[in-house]
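Task: sequence in, structure out. Protein: Autophagy-related protein 27.
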Amino acid sequence: MTRTRPLRLLQGAAVALLSATALAQDDAFDCHITHDGLQYDLTTLAGVHLVKRDWETPPSTMIESVRFSLCSDLEPLEDVSDRDQCPSGTRACLTKTNRKSDEDDRIMSVIQLATSSASNVQYSALSSPKGLSVSFRGPSYPPSADDDPTPQSFNLRLLCSPDSSEPSFYSYDGSEMWVEWSSPSGCGGAGDGSGDEPTPDGDMEKPKGSGKSVGSGVGYFFLLLFLALAAYFGLGAYYNYSTYGASGMDLIPHRDFWREVPYMLSDVIAHLCSAVRPRQSAGRGGYIAV
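Result:
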């Protein structure tokens, strides 16, 4: 009895740990966003990216560098101690470094700007220029409550553009980090399977080639009609020549029929005209002159 109880406790702890891990994975932001009827797929922006800025503080230089990964957690850096990098579950990490000539770089602070939880992600549409704003909330820094902690966030201004650019360090005020990035991923898609995508001006763009479908169909029809007539007259002429020894106008297949075609067309036109004339005369007062 005394042996089975610790075993049950270990099993319960393992199940609880696995459940918590699965829940954390389900809650992780997966780079798929639906907003205002548009779907945004940010997986094309996946991977680890680095933006930085620096300024002179003689006799040294301060460097702020931000490593971020939108679609997955940052992997720990090799040859860097754990205290000099952000903990696991981080999507954006800011490192402040002091650099002085003839001396090793000194890390001044490491700030966790964003975590992987989808519940900490907010987004809104940009109108001018068109795009999407994505904000990741992070924990406060410093983590100690005695040091007047400041809430941190990582914010991405994803601008709609037909071409992709490199992300750029836009600003950091000690609380909000802003990165600007131009990419087709900022345009969004209709999400209804139609393939329509908005242009940078906001208009819906049809897939390439859809506007030519009608014209190309009519063109194919006349091409097939021309080929059929060419084959008809060519094969018919060859048949008349090889069978009857015909020449000149006698080579035309069904020559008598084609002779009658102009008269048949004139009869059709005369019939149409006679059908229209009574309506016109009936509209002139409804009487017939004697």
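The longest helix spans residues 213-244.
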